[in-house]
Specification:
The protein is an alpha/beta fold. The protein is built from three helices and 14 strands. Strands 4-3-2-1-5-6-7-14-9-12 form a ten-stranded mixed beta sheet. A four-stranded antiparallel beta sheet has the order 8-13-10-11, with no helix packed on it. A hairpin with a 5-residue loop joins β10 and β11. 31% of the residues are buried.
Amino acid sequence: MKRCFIIAGGDFDGFYDQIRDDDLVIAADRGFDHAKKSGINPDIIIGDFDSSDKPIDNNKVIKLNPIKDYTDTKAAMMIAKDKDYDKIIIYGGLGGRDSHTLANIRSSLEFKKQGIDVYIKSKHKDIFIIDDKYSYDFNDEDDFYVSVFALSEIVRGLCIRGLYYELNDFDLAIDNSLGVSNETSKRDFSISLDDGYLLVIFESKDI
């Protein structure tokens, strides 16, 4: 998969991936400040710069009109899509304004429906969407919460295997919070569904 990293302007507690030569790195508005502090030199800097100073390097900068129908982070996601990247990893996409966190999750769903996997990451959280199946190989250091929520009206045929609480062929409605705060149980686990879109959240027990 072609990977694009987006560093957004929300809460930022570090960068925890290894950037490869063929990866694309985009800083969205105040995310450029986060990138600089982490020693990351983005390929593209985009934003309306209403929350930070516009960078001097004009060759990399895309200046957006502050009057627009999408966030700076989504604008970065649109660039990744146009350049045929099918895996987007967002840092700085959580915290800050709750409205932006929700917008990032909604945008992740929009792009998932177009065949692009989006992961929102921080030191203590991983958030992503599945529409088929997912498996996780356990190691001895793993101990975290796993929550799942329907993003479609009903997620049909939900199965959870290997977590503390298991499910078999369950239909999870969008207004049902049953999937909150499951947890690992020292074994491999899997999550699958027959139809719909499922939000998956991994949260460290350290927070």
